[in-house]
Structure of Beta-xylanase:
Amino acid sequence: GTTLRALARKAGIRVGTAVNSDALAGEAPYAQKVADEFSSVTPENVMKWDTVEPARGTYDFTQADQLVAFAKAHGQLVRGHNLLWHNQLPSWLTSGDFSAAELRDILHQHITAEVAHFKGEIWQWDVVNEAFNDDGTLRDDLWLDKLGPGYVADAFRWAHAADPKAVLFINDYNIEGVNAKSTALYDLVKGLRAEGVPVQGVGIQGHLDVKYPAPHDIADNMARFDALGVQTAITEADVRMTLPADATDVEAQDEAYQTLLQGCLLTRHCTDFTVWGFTDKYSWVPGVFTGEGQANIFDENYRPKSAYTALGQDL
Ligand code: XIL
């Protein structure tokens, strides 16, 4: 049969998956599916701050390098994820009592070291991840708290200096449709670009739940970003449901996946559709959303689900 990556190629986009590095190294059928079905990959965890800089100024890119090598061997592009976030930070950073100047220097060093390490190997970088609250205000995390809102522009400038060819993204969730959060992000990106800040892409995560209808204005929302001259992508698609699921849940899941993909296909500079893991065997959902699961497009035994077929039909 055909594969998602073959269909995506004809559609002119990449189809990607987040990759669990332990499964990739330890389980042949997992690695086989990544290679066969996808044309881009995102490290699920191994490029995050706590993994790559476990002690201040000490870097460990071992697992990330392995994924980059895998991608190269299989003709895949890599989405770097991520450089700045409020989660998965090392404890030396979160518990250290740094002055604003020190923290700014730490961020500058981190972004420069990580982007420089992978220079030429990363297609798109998620530079800033989940910076907004749902009401459109900036998240009150240590970055905003100590550095003020200018940290966003700084992060993009530093990343661009370290690898001028990587496409630099801002990435967030609950920004699929037009709402307060996506509008605040739109205003920020517009303002930054007017100032010449190198923000070049908007990543729409796409973590959906069958309990809430998938927004049907995804393409409208993406069109306004498109008009700013930035790339867009669906970067972390999954559609969770309360277990046990029934046929209605499964149908709603298929539809939600299709709605996300169609948003991308209808947007001129949408470059890729990435799922946040492809198998129900390895998913962040059950660990975070109590009682929910079955969010992915293959089951625990790597059999394609109806959502897989639905995506293939739309590509
Ligand atoms: C998740 C991973 O899937 C988990 O393995 C990890 O424990 C926590 O982070 N938004 C993001 C991703 O941008 O980095 C998150 O990934 C899921 C939500």
About this structure: The CA atoms of residues 41 and 78 lie 5 Å apart.
